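Page 37, continued from 36.
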């Protein structure tokens, strides 16, 4: 067949519909796509999806810093002491606990002792093990949730659910939902930033901070650790701001002409907006991410002056600077690539990682207080699940999604408390169990959002972060 230059061949089904039937196909396409998703109120999204939005309730916090210990930290070695575990160490799990399905299948493994030294800290008497001595000094600021529950038995499903609400990928992340519901205050910076502690790939990769079926504008932006956290941010020295602006304007014209024929293509819209954001970031971001302007005392507070704590300490300090400059949601990964996954040698594994995060996290909490950011910033700590009281490979612990610990601090959450409890061995949540759906609903409630009203319509279905199953825990807000 000969090419016919006067005939433009559609590049997609959307373009075919838009040009078919004298344009009537475009009407059908617009109806199918709904042009833009609508909230349950029936009002359209604002033209700028990142524009600040009103809350349903008075917000206790405006920003979130989520400290994600990827791989599953052992709650029974950190925040949930179990004296009976040491008494029964070496024995089989009592029959009264029923059948347990473990990720790695060592169903006959004996109980393993916890050789931790436990002490009560602060006026509240909160129990913290000797693995986290610096965080223990902040005990009165922590609300420790000992009864968390997840459905993910392996890392992929566990990390996915803790980030998106579902064990299967494809849904928007918690940070995307927060950005969708609240927008962001600083239009010159991303609303949602992710920092990892190494070059290792986080399990599931960018899906953990993706926007799923929402417009791509809500997805997280990954920064790198080190002196140059934003790759390719600064233009070459011979490119002037005026020349950069002219290039961007031309690119915007071409992209928008392309977009007019492809209604509903959120990836293209997000790319156009990302170019604009990147241009604004070239002016705003360098100063925000430059840690050299911090005092030596502050760097020491985060442990940046020490080899073991330098990386995570730098990320924690970066997180404080980001929320201080209007970034809505910041997520920090410790142990990227399932580093906390202690199937063997939990002493060496957790000992090293606790050393890496203990001082930086305590420094972050103290720094937020002294800089007036405490009430506005919700800090969350935890992983995708906990570890079992039974041993694995003799000196490790398996995955445990049926009962584990997370904690929250700041953001109006009363500290010095524990919520819920696991059984006498730390295997299952038995008092006030909080599923991941409940945790997500509670986090949004702290941000002033009613999770039952934060709806995104996808393929005609009203979608929510909690899969229509969660409830906000009022005890976290000190209201019950």
């Amino acid at each position: 067949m000969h090419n016919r230059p006067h005939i433009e061949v559609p590049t997609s089904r959307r373009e075919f519909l838009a040009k078919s039937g004298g344009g009537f196909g475009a009407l059908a396409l617009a109806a199918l796509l709904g042009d833009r998703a609508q909230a349950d109120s029936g009002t359209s999204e604002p033209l700028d999806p990142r524009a600040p939005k009103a809350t349903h309730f008075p917000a206790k916090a405006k920003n979130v810093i989520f400290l994600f210990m990827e791989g599953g930290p052992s709650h029974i070695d950190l925040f949930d002491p179990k004296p009976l575990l040491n008494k029964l160490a070496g024995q089989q799990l009592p029959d009264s606990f029923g059948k347990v399905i473990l990720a790695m299948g060592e169903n006959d493994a004996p109980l393993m002792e916890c050789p931790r030294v436990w002490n009560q800290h602060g006026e509240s008497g909160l129990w913290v093990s000797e693995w986290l001595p610096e965080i223990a000094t902040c005990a009165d600021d922590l609300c420790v949730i000992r009864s968390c529950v997840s459905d993910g038995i392996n890392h992929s499903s566990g990390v996915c659910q803790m980030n998106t609400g579902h064990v299967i990928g494809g849904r928007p992340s918690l940070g995307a939902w927060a950005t969708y519901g609240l927008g962001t205050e600083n239009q010159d910076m991303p609303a949602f930033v992710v920092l990892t502690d190494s070059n290792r790939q986080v399990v599931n990769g960018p899906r953990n901070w993706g926007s799923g079926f929402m417009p791509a504008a809500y997805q997280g932006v990954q920064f790198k650790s080190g002196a140059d956290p934003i790759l390719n941010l600064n233009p070459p020295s011979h490119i002037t701001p005026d020349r950069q602006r002219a290039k961007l304007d031309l690119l915007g014209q071409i992209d928008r002409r392309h977009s007019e024929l492809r209604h509903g293509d959120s990836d293209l819209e997000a790319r156009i907006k990302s170019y604009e954001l990147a241009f604004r970031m070239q002016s705003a971001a360098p100063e925000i991410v430059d840690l050299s302007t911090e005092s030596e005392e502050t760097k020491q507070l985060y442990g940046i002056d020490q080899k073991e704590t330098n990386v995570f300490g730098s990320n924690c300090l970066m997180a404080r600077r980001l929320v201080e400059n209007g970034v809505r949601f910041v997520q920090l990964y410790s142990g990227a690539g399932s580093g906390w996954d202690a199937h063997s040698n939990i002493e060496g594994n957790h000992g090293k990682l606790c050393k890496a995060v203990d001082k930086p996290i305590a420094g972050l909490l103290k720094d937020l207080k002294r800089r007036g950011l405490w009430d506005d910033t919700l800090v969350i700590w935890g992983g995708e699940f906990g570890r079992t009281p039974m041993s694995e490979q003799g000196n490790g612990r398996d995955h445990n999604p049926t009962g584990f610990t997370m904690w929250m601090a700041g953001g109006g959450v009363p500290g010095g408390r524990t919520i819920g409890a696991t059984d006498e061995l730390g295997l299952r949540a038995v008092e006030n169990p909080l599923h991941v759906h409940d945790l997500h609903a509670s986090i949004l409630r702290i941000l002033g959002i009613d999770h039952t009203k934060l709806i995104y319509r996808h393929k005609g279905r009203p979608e929510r972060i909690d899969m229509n199953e969660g409830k906000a825990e009022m005890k976290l807000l000190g209201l019950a």
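The chain has one domain: 63-230+287-477. Flag for discussion at group meeting. The first helix runs from residue 13 to 19.
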